[in-house]
């Protein structure tokens, strides 16, 4: 997209001729901007954290993702412990997908209409209530998989509004120059929590039960809410149009569809997520049925996966704008290799090391796809554009359902092996045919 890109609707009459850099300069005030640097390397890895508001957003994300990662261990193991059914495990995880898919576009439109900071806070407050509901259900001994399905549905709805607002506010806080670094540090925050939170969650589950874990999860969600309140007033460039809410959504979709590079990035990012994510949810099957171990072992595997994600994210943060398109495709290849090795090697300690590859591939795909999408989007569209990418959060749990059915009949190893093969084929097709992606800097 050129700096003076023209839109084809009524928006072309309102500020369309302004360069994207000038838009970003207005939404990220000079006093909050980090010192600009065009150098790359490990010394600049954490440069974006010199921005006060982004630092609070980042710390809040760490708290929120810590709770999410703990919940992944608890909800998966608890469902399987209650039901001993891979199918119901898939149903509960897929429950997250329905509201996320149904509401993400609405969440993106709201992020382009309302105060993004307030939208983030409202979603975080809802997460606190959901965590408290599950904790009370466990302590009153009324918990069933239905309760967990209800919690999954509620959190899917909350994330549909939280994620577009949180991703689209980053360029407002940080500006364009350090956007790749900021997005990579967001991914690093997520990854750092996957290193410790799953292990802590699994250990607490084994020692004192899931109720205590959900109390900790609720506390982390509350901490994220408090940290977000420390962010200063965010200046908005949102343009008020005489257009309906559905009209906003349609306009955002049309904006994406007329940009070929955005479509290509969305496809490779979605394919990688849909084919690699089910392994996380089906992990209890591997831990219980193949390795004959408990929740602490599962937590350790997720932590190692988090170490891989952290390394991948920090590497991207230090590389800056170096061959990002090719790295995006390579991230999918790394994930397919990790899945293939886990599927063929039935030994716990070997698998625990191998899953680091899954984390590396996931961090590369997620960081670069979000960065490249947001970098090429105008501010007034960023909420809606990010909501389309955020629909992956709905599609990922949804992909667990067919994976759970396949695992019921074919077993976990065969199912993951098939997904590894499909992802390798998709990655090869993109490497060979998508020259525009390969050449992205």
Main attributes?
18 helices, disordered N terminus, 0% strand, mainly alpha, single chain, 77% helix, Growth Hormone, Chain: A, 441 residues
Helical stretch tally? 18
Helices and strands, in order, run as HHHHHHHHHHHHHHHHHH
Class inferred from helices and paired strands: mainly alpha
What's the Cα radius of gyration?
Answer: 21 Å
Helical content band:
over 70%
Q: Quick one: CATH class? A: Mainly Alpha
Stretches where pLDDT falls below 50 for ≥5 residues?
Answer: 1-39
Based on DSSP secondary structure assignment, what is the total number of beta strands? Answer: 0
Compact description:
By secondary structure, this protein is mainly alpha-helical.
Question: If you had to describe this structure to a student in words, what would you say it looks like?
Answer:
It is a single chain. The chain is mainly α and 441 residues long. It has one domain: Up-down Bundle (Growth Hormone, Chain: A), CATH 1.20.1250.20. Helix content is 77%, strand content 0%. The chain has 18 helices and no strands. Helix 1 crosses helix 6 and helix 7 runs antiparallel to helix 8. It is globular, with a radius of gyration of 21 Å.
Write the SSE topology:
Layout: H1 20-27, H2 52-83, H3 86-95, H4 97-111, H5 116-139, H6 145-174, H7 179-208, H8 210-228, H9 245-257, H10 260-276, H11 278-290, H12 295-319, H13 324-344, H14 348-375, H15 382-390, H16 392-410, H17 412-433, H18 435-438
């Amino acid at each position: 997209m050129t700096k003076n890109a023209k839109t084809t609707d009524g928006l072309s009459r309102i500020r369309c001729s302004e360069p994207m850099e000038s838009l970003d300069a207005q939404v990220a005030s000079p006093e909050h901007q980090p010192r600009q640097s065009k150098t790359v390397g490990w010394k600049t890895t954490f440069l974006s954290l010199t921005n006060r508001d982004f630092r609070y957003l980042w710390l809040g994300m760490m708290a929120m993702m810590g709770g999410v990662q703990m919940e992944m261990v608890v909800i998966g193991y608890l469902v399987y412990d209650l039901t001993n059914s891979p199918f119901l495990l898939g149903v509960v995880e897929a429950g997250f997908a329905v509201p996320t898919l149904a509401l993400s576009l609405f969440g993106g439109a709201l992020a382009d209409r309302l105060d993004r900071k307030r939208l983030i806070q409202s979603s975080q407050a809802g997460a606190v209530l959901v965590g408290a509901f599950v904790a009370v259900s466990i302590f009153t001994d009324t918990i069933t998989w239905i309760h967990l399905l209800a919690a999954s549905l509620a959190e899917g709805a909350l994330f549909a509004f939280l994620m577009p607002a949180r991703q689209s506010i980053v360029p407002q806080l940080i500006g364009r120059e350090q956007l790749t670094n900021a997005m990579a540090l967001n991914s690093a925050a997520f990854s750092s929590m996957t290193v410790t939170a799953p292990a802590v969650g699994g250990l607490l589950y084994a020692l004192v039960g899931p109720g205590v874990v959900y109390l900790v999860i609720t506390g982390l969600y509350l901490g994220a809410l408090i940290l977000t309140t420390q962010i200063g007033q965010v200046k908005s460039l949102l343009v008020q149009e005489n257009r309906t809410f559905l009209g906003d959504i349609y306009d955002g979709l049309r904006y994406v569809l007329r940009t070929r590079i955005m479509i290509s990035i969305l496809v490779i990012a979605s394919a990688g997520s849909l084919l690699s994510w089910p392994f996380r949810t089906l992990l209890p099957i591997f831990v219980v049925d193949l390795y004959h171990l408990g929740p602490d072992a599962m937590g350790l595997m997720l932590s190692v996966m988090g170490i891989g994600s952290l390394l991948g994210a920090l590497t991207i943060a230090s590389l800056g704008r170096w061959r990002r398109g090719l790295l995006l495709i390579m991230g999918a290849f790394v994930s397919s290799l990790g899945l293939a090795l886990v599927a063929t090697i039935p030994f716990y300690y070997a698998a625990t090391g191998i899953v680091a590859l899954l984390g590396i591939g996931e961090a590369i795909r997620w960081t670069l796809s979000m960065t490249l999408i947001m970098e090429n989007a105008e501010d007034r569209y960023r909420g809606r554009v990010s909501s389309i990418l955020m629909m992956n959060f709905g599609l990922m749990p949804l992909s667990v359902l067919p994976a759970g059915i396949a695992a019921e009949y074919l077993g976990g190893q065969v199912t993951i092996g098939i997904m590894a093969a499909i992802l390798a084929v998709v990655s090869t097709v993109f490497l060979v045919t998508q020259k525009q992606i390969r050449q992205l800097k």
